[in-house]
């Protein structure tokens, strides 16, 4: 008996050592990968505060020879326009994200309900739009001539409120997580469809809705082409369009042959904080998303598996 106990204890000890060694190796690998992924982000922030002379001498470095705010001074040179564009981007991102989550959640709930008469037809219609798109020109004609959204802030998020992919994925989550008996019990208790959706479906579907909200937030915040295509008034330009124009102007000043051929042009091109401005642009675009991500993190891991197949 004692011999068997000793053998069992030795096996447990060996298994414990293997598990402990496995955890150490896994933690080391994760730390190394985290540093590899984090290093470019840190470098972007550091270069945005580096002086032009330092970048010209030693290139991009984690320890620059000298620090400077020239990149940010260039960006904030037109502070009022920057503030206006920032306000537009914040409004579009926040309003678009909230409306996208609500509208997509409602459409997914409709095609989730088995007692909805046209459930299959609507699902096919959503799926069909995933396979075939009208293209840019028809979309532009519809948004400007039919919906009259040309040079309107609403065009930046209204046409994309419900993505077919998000609706179908969310319907899958409803099917896996919300049993029909729960909805039927709520209806027996006198709850109408609005109460069922907002009091039962929304709380259960928080991980999926948060994930869709995060993807929508990132997409709306990073979208510059829609604003460039539809917005003609400077006061309505989103931040991404303004920064893209600043970058284009900077590239023009530093590469235009006529301008740079003169002595003053050469001197200005050499002193222009081109690289630090590029990094400052990246910082302005990247920082809000970095601050927003922690609020979605607790739902993110579960939410990204909403389309997986159960085993």
From TrEMBL:
InterPro entries named among the record's database cross-references: MetI-like (IPR000515), MetI-like_sf (IPR035906)
Pfam family, one: BPD_transp_1
A GO cellular-component term linked to this record: plasma membrane
Superkingdom, taxonomy of origin: Bacteria
Chief localization: membrane
Keyword line: Cell membrane, Membrane, Transmembrane, Transmembrane helix, Transport
Domain ABC transmembrane type-1 as annotated: residue spans: 86-296
Keyword Ion transport set for record: no
Localisation per UniProt entry: Cell membrane
Membrane topology: Multi-pass membrane protein
GO biological process: transmembrane transport
Family statement drawn from the similarity comment of this UniProt entry: Belongs to the binding-protein-dependent transport system permease family.
Protein name: Carbohydrate ABC transporter permease
